[in-house]
Amino acid sequence: MDCRKKENQNEPMSEPVTRQERLSELMLQTTRMLNHSLGGRCSQGRVLRILNRHGSMTQQDLQNRLNIQPSSTSEILTKLENAGFITRKRDETDRRRFIIAITEAGRADVQEHWLARRRRQSVLYDVLDSEEQEEMIRLLEKLRASWEAIPIDRRIGCVFPCDANAGDREVGERCD
Question: What's the sign of the alpha-carbon dihedral 146, 125, 176, 70?
């Protein structure tokens, strides 16, 4: 499986030939549509959700939880700090470390995005009745469990980038 990005994300790399290729292509297309329609700011939103859920933590702990590079962490935190959604203070016991905390404005933003996301989700899935939604959940959970069980060395060059921190992600979220 080719894990590289295509130049035009809306066009298939080639016409699907097998059922598995058709499934993969449809999953890619629907994932892109889902990610787009549920609202951008994936990394920033993820940071706010983590801090809202787990409380203050060091920048290093947050970076480890996010599973991203230090420069990416700093960039995300700077944007959130400038927006007034987080505070970043030196650790009193170790001046080399920063403690990151969510502000009231950050908590309000998490709540606002959560409510908007719920409204968008109902629109996206209204085409399926409740039985179809349950069947889709069952099938996707089965696929996810199967794929997560594949040993890393057998994943044929494709890495699942957020295996260690999947619980902090939401549907449609990338791990960049």
Answer: negative
pTM, 2 dp: 0.60
Provide, rounded to the nearest whole percent, the portion of the chain with pLDDT above 70: 77
Q: Which of 66, 56, 19, 51 is nearest to 164 (CA)?
A: 66
Residue 16: other Cβ atoms inside 10 A: 14
**What is each CA distance from 116 to 14, 29, 123, in whole angstroms?**
36, 22, 11
Given a contact cutoff of 8 angstroms between Cβ atoms, the answer to whether 160 and 147 are in contact is yes
Reported as a single tens digit per residue, the pLDDT across 112-142 is 988 888 888 888 899 999 999 999 999 999 9
CB 103 within 8 A of CB 85: yes
- Cα angle 75-32-116, degrees, rounded to a multiple of 5: 70
Please spell the DSSP secondary structure of 96-146, one letter per residue: T-EEEEE-HHHHHHHHHHHHHHHHHHHHHHTTS-HHHHHHHHHHHHHHHHH
Give the single-character DSSP code of 57. E
